[in-house]
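USER: Study each token:
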Amino acid sequence: MSAPSTQAPIGRIDRVASTSSHKWRVVVLLCCCAVAACSAMRGDANLSSSAAPVIAGAASLLSVYAASSRVDAGGSLWFQAQNGSRPTDQVIWMVNGIQGGNAEVGVISASGVYRAPAHVTGALPVTIQAALKDSPLVTSTAPLTVFGI
């Protein structure tokens, strides 16, 4: 089986002759399957649908929301995560990619309560992110702007 130059081969088919008929056997190259799995996780559109591996957690749809997309310096805002159509608290919260946040960008509790930094000059854009605890590659983000007072 020859693959287009943009695809990594996922195996080969060897034709083996026998006395009564032709038999076909598929030789699976596990290392190429691992490459295909990595390509699929990167979102490589060159993989055929028959070669795409099943990725655990891929069916999960996580969303993050709050009552507002802005908060004043020193203020708080509660974020909620929803997995599919159900609210969930089984997430890890981050602010600008920092688990739990910090004093510079604000902190977020395990229950999703964000506390903005006390002193902000102008406007501070931050990103609130949630990742499923049991599938940390499944994430969702929400933009937030902290305004100085």
User: Anything to note?
Assistant: The two ends are 66 Å apart (CA to CA). The longest strand covers residues 123-132. Helices lie at 30-42.
